[in-house]
Each structure stands twice: as structure tokens, then as C-alpha cells.
Task: inverse folding
């Protein structure tokens, strides 16, 4: 399955050099959002929210072919 992943905050480091803030590629059929996060190499707890095709989803949501996924981290400041 082909997916497009938009990466924000510290997650931008997981994007491909030729497309900063974006990761596009093939993933295994039946993959969940958590499977994708693991594939990208993000440590547990770094991703705080996920949207897929414009709707908020949970980490155990299955990913359909050609999904557009947005991954974000918590924002901290003081």
C-alpha cells in the first residue's frame, strides 16, 4: 500500500532528504498507525496525535491504501 505521511515538529527528522516534512512510500497491507510509526523509527510516546484523511484517529486504526497521514508531537514551552 502507498501512503503519504506529513511530519511536524521533531518528527521532521524522519522525512526523506528530498522531501523535508514528508515521507511517501509503501507499507505492508493491514498496517496500523502504530505499525507505521514503528516503521518510521519514532520512539514510543513521541507521536501525540494522528489524523488520517482529515480525521483524528487512534494508533490502532488500520491504514487504507493511498491514505494521507499527519503525525504531530506535543508542544512544550515555558
Result:
Amino acid at each position: 500500500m502507498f501512503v503519504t505521511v506529513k511530519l511536524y515538529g521533531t518528527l521532521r527528522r524522519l522525512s526523506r532528504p528530498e522531501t523535508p516534512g514528508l515521507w511517501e512510500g509503501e507499507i505492508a497491507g493491514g498496517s496500523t498507525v502504530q505499525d507505521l510509526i514503528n516503521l518510521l523509527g519514532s520512539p514510543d510516546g513521541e507521536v501525540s496525535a494522528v489524523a488520517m484523511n482529515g480525521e483524528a484517529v487512534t494508533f490502532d486504526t488500520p491504514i487504507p491504501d493511498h491514505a494521507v497521514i499527519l503525525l504531530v508531537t506535543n508542544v512544550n514551552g515555558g
User: Anything to note?
Assistant: Residues 7 and 67 are 14 Å apart (CA to CA). The first strand starts at residue 2 and ends at 7.
